[in-house]
């Protein structure tokens, strides 16, 4: 029988596990604080930020909401980030992407103090991750590792195929899985739009991670019996005149082959949000020089 990995339950465990660390910080007079910066009127972005703020309230992290006019000059966003960098009461900074077209997202990422970069995307943090000495693991890749661990999936010596090479998921996840660590030591293949015969790569894998942003790209015909499937994709499609969410995996056909699989929604998404809280607590601990157990 296929194990459907419950991302909501694993995320709840992560949040519960943060309680002691936040209590230690509170005892030291420190309140973890995450600043979210929204420069968009996109309803999805507004929803994501609202959910992150609710998550913060649930675990005892203070959420500071900063909203900017999407038509404002880029300088206003950079000045806001600079002010948050300089504010000792702010421990983590998240600028919700995408930003408006007149703002270069790479420049925004570089503007955030690496010590407060709880997304883990600043070049300094990326470099440390690649070097095998990460400070902040990007939230989605870290969440994937937690899901694999919760499902009892051993990555040591496993063949893992990642479909998608984005800077947000595919590349950092490949690096983490390759590293000599408890959740690493895998043999990793990364597929992308120029890969010939992706199916050949996925069929020989023990673990397939779909993160290409293409609805239902991976189906059961591309898998071998007993594969573990992690679906990172979240795609909105129209079906029978209604809008619905699907992943990068055709769930039903993949489920017939998989030993374990994540659903969409309720799989990787909750973990991304949970690991943002984790990184915020870690950032607070490092800045306040108050050791916590994470």
Description of the structure:
It catalyses: (6R)-5,10-methylene-5,6,7,8-tetrahydrofolate + NADP(+) = (6R)-5,10-methenyltetrahydrofolate + NADPH; (6R)-5,10-methenyltetrahydrofolate + H2O = (6R)-10-formyltetrahydrofolate + H(+). It comes from Haloplanus rallus. Catalyzes the oxidation of 5,10-methylenetetrahydrofolate to 5,10-methenyltetrahydrofolate and then the hydrolysis of 5,10-methenyltetrahydrofolate to 10-formyltetrahydrofolate. The protein has 294 residues and is of the alpha/beta class. The chain folds into two domains: 87 residues, Leucine Dehydrogenase, chain A, domain 1 (Rossmann fold), CATH 3.40.50; 132 residues, Rossmann fold, CATH 3.40.50. Strand 2, helix 2 and strand 3 form a beta-alpha-beta unit. The chain is globular. The two termini are 33 Å apart.
Brief summary of the model shown:
This protein has helices at residues 7-27, 43-59, 74-86, 105-111, 123-130, 139-150, 170-178, 198-203, 251-255, 268-288; strands at residues 3-4, 33-38, 62-67, 92-95, 159-163, 187-191, 207-210, 227-231, 235-239, 242-246, 258-261.
